[in-house]
Amino acid sequence: MSIRFKRPIVIIFTIVLLFGMSFGFTSCAENADATVVPEETLPSYDEMHKLTEDYVIAYSNFMLNSTATDVSIYTSEGTTPAGNICSATFIESNDSKYINLVLEVDRQDSFDCDEYYRIDASHIFIARSSIAPDNSIIGIFKYIIIDDVLYRIDEQNQTVTPVDRQDSLDLYLSFEEIITLYSGK
Questions:
Q1: In this structure, are strands 123-131 and 159-162 parallel, antiparallel, or unpaired?
Q2: Global confidence as pTM
């Protein structure tokens, strides 16, 4: 596979570019079964889209205007929850307003770049960019964790639906675990 991010600044600019492009793309269907939840209790797509978009834009602007003294960046190697080897870049602003983790994961059939944004104590936004061995984009998949429940954000259908088989996605579901594993603290 020819894609390799080794410097944090390259990761940052690549992810900012991917997110800029992702707002024009639609999400692909996920294989996980959705838990049956009454529609009136589901998060609003419009509210979640605005929440995540506003946060990513604010984070991107902060990173573009920050200096090396405004953030702490820690790189390491690790494993995903399913045991896949990954490279990790943990980024935290000095005031802890922005905390972000980028995992680069080589899988047999794709290269995934998983980016975790801690919006607040109750919300974690996750974006997975999957790239095929021929460097074509498979898709950009978006998720949000709200009060410990993982939801898929489907831009094509403008829905937010719970993910039933969360472990099938090989994602971290807690920022406490991410901080313990990757913050270097």
A1: unpaired
A2: 0.79
